[in-house]
Design goal:
The complex is a heterodimer. By secondary structure, chain A is mainly alpha-helical. Chain A has two domains: about 1-40 and about 95-355, Up-down Bundle (Fumarate Reductase Cytochrome B subunit), CATH 1.20.950.20; about 40-90, no CATH class. In chain A, strand 1 and strand 2 form a beta hairpin. Chain A is about 70% helix and about 5% strand. Chain A is elongated and about 85 Å long. Chain B has a single domain (about 5-205), classed as Alpha-Beta Plaits (2-Layer Sandwich), CATH 3.30.70. By secondary structure, chain B is α+β, with helices and mostly antiparallel strands. Chain B contains eight helices and six strands, in the order E-H-E-E-H-E-E-H-H-H-E-H-H-H. Chain B has a two-stranded antiparallel ribbon. In chain B, strands 2-3 form a two-stranded antiparallel sheet. In chain B, strands 4-5 form a two-stranded antiparallel sheet. The chains are: A mainly alpha, B alpha+beta. Chains A and B meet through helix 2, strand 3, helix 3, helix 4 and helix 6 of A and strand 2, strand 3, helix 2 and helix 3 of B. Bound molecules: iron/sulfur cluster (2 copies). One iron/sulfur cluster binds near residues 57, 97, 99, 101 and 118 of chain B.
Chain lengths: ~350, ~200
């Protein structure tokens, strides 16, 4: 058994070395090849005419868009009378890359990631359970979130859930739902999902701006945040590390939401409004084709969306199950004094001082 | 069972776009959609070639593997068709297709995509053969009428061939045997009397 693995390992190593050697040998040549591409269709000569022709057929388009957003391939001189996106491209080679990424990387790995995070949360719940505060239930409450903050939060949350569910239906519905409901019914579900996703999607960046303006004030780094992170928010060491209005975890959530939100908004808007993809293509000709812009946007959108979903899984889990008493801050706007004292001691002191003064 | 195939002979295509027009007319294809198109390489230069391209009815069709609603199916003749009732117009098939075959009419608000439309190999769609609803949605079902695709039937130079794969390849093989390949090929080189070509042909 051991011998087997060692021999397998050594053969793999040998293969690696071989590939490495090949690469070092091959690179200068391939570089030179790219530098001087043969003229595509030569006048008849001793060479096989077909080779150049079919090289031209397969060649990636070096497309530039004209004023109608239609690509006319100038360098390769491929033209067509038909007007349409990438109409002059004969063979779309990037499609294969996108297809295999979507079907064989993004879909299984995204699914596994989400299941893994859910499983992790479940294990945490089983082995650690909830974190109790010092359970001095005096009934006194502090105002944590204003009505505007709560409205923004829940609007964004509702939008996120809607976009998340419709997006997941579009990605996984074929494998998960068609066997249950059949093709016709799923066609309607998927159509509805697509329309809802596309219509409500553009609201997301707007809500992102609102929540940013509303909450950024208290989300900057403060002294003590690092200690909070080191202690894992109390996961290690047992005691509650000191925290201000927002603890470091919440700050990370805030900034990740903004960051992932920006990426998901930009890619989503391009996917939603193809005219933007044409603009991207004009600005970044390295994309070569309209389709390649859409493929790249789709891949990034999907990956970021699933990471985002996992982040929000964690957020919901922490705010409801792990730390009871947190949710009321977002529903009634008020939190218990003991909750504030244990989880946000510095904010608690501030609030007490304010109240004392007032 | 026949395995339907298209073949465009680049040595014959003269970019007359008759196939494009014939298809558009035969199937009353929606605005903004061309199921077939002719692409010219090195237009106006020596060695210019044109190729007519549409859906190639792939055996392992990439469009079908990415479609989120799984609306593609392959007929017994090897023709790849799709169901417009289920299609949601997401555009994924267009991203994945090697030949840019799927097309979208602008129907929705803000120019959003309508239901996908592509070459059916003149074989209609999932509706009942030769029914008026099939005709409206997918165009004419010539295969059911015992005819081959109109684009190829119309082709004046018979550059575009359509039909059973083995027949199509027989025709093409015969052509290649007769006219030769590569440097030995008659056609442009002979027509413009390139030095060296004539002698090699007359020699052989
Ligand atoms: S639409 Fe494209 S991918 Fe699908 S069968 Fe036709 S050529 Fe192949
Ligand atoms: S546009 Fe229609 S046929 Fe094409 S992948 Fe989307 S749902 Fe399927």
């Amino acid at each position: 058994m051991k011998k087997r693995t060692i021999s397998a390992l050594s053969s793999r190593l040998a293969l690696l070395v071989c590939v490495g050697l090949l690469m070092t040998v091959a690179t200068p040549f391939s570089g030179a090849d790219e530098a001087q591409l043969p003229s595509l269709v030569k006048p008849l000569g001793p060479a096989n005419l077909g080779v150049d022709l079919w090289a031209a057929v397969r060649a990636r388009s070096d497309a530039t868009s004209d004023q109608h957003g239609l690509s006319r391939d100038t360098k390769r001189n491929k033209t067509t009378q038909v007007r349409g996106y990438d109409a002059n491209v004969l063979v779309n080679q990037a499609g294969e890359t996108w297809m295999s990424f979507r079907n064989h990387q993004m879909m299984p790995k995204g699914r596994d990631l989400m299941i893994f995070v859910l499983l992790l949360m479940f294990l945490f719940y089983v082995f650690r359970g909830s974190v109790d505060d010092d359970s001095d239930d005096s009934g006194v409450e502090l105002q944590r979130f204003s009505i505007s903050a709560r409205m923004i939060h829940w609007f964004l949350a509702g939008l996120f859930i809607l976009l998340g569910i419709t997006g997941l239906i579009l990605l996984y519905g074929r494998t998960a739902l068609i066997p249950l409901v059949g093709h016709e019914a799923f066609g309607v579900i998927a159509w509805l999902s697509k329309e809802l996703h596309n219509v409500s999607g553009p609201l997301f960046p707007m809500m992102l701006i609102f929540i940013f303006l509303n909450m950024v004030r208290d989300n900057f780094y403060e002294r003590g945040d690092l200690t909070w992170i080191v202690k894992g928010g109390g996961f290690f060491g047992g005691t509650h590390p000191s925290a201000g209005r927002y603890n470091a975890g919440e700050k990370i959530l805030f900034w990740l939401t903004i960051l992932l939100g920006i990426v998901i908004s930009i890619t989503g808007l391009v996917l939603n409004f193809p005219v933007l993809a044409v603009m991207v293509l004009e600005r970044y000709p390295e994309f070569e084709q309209y389709r390649q812009v859409m493929e790249a946007m789709h891949a990034v959108h999907g990956v970021v969306a699933m990471v985002f979903i996992c982040l929000i899984f964690g957020h919901i889990f922490l705010a409801t199950v792990v730390v009871p008493g947190t949710l009321s801050g977002m529903t009634s706007g008020k939190v218990g004094v003991s909750w504030a004292r244990s989880h946000h001691n510095r904010w608690y002191t501030q609030m007490m001082e304010k109240q004392g003064k007032g | 069972m026949a395995r339907m195939k298209f073949l465009c002979d680049a040595e014959r295509c003269i970019e007359c776009n008759a196939c494009v027009t014939a298809c558009k007319n035969e199937h009353e294809v929606p605005w903004g959609v061309n199921r077939r198109r002719v692409v010219t390489i090195n237009d106006g230069e020596p060695g210019e070639r044109s190729i007519s391209v549409a859906c190639m009815h792939c055996s392992d069709a990439p469009c079908a593997t990415v479609c989120p609603v799984d609306c593609f199916y392959t007929t017994d003749d090897g023709v790849v068709l799709h169901d417009k009732d289920i299609c949601i117009g997401c555009g994924y098939c267009f991203y994945a297709c090697p030949f840019g075959a799927p097309q979208f009419p602008d129907t929705g608000a803000f120019g959003s995509r309508g239901k996908m439309d592509k070459c059916t190999f003149c074989a209609g769609g999932p509706e009942e053969d030769m029914s008026s609803i099939e005709n409206r949605k997918y165009g004419r079902n010539r295969l059911a009428e015992g005819k081959l695709p109109l684009c190829a039937e119309m082709c004046s130079t018979k550059a575009l061939l359509a039909g059973d794969g083995s027949k199509v390849s027989d025709i093409f093989r015969e052509r290649v045997t007769y006219r030769g390949a590569g440097a030995m090929q008659w056609g442009w080189g002979v027509a413009y009397d390139k030095p060296g070509i004539k002698s090699s042909r007359s020699g052989g």
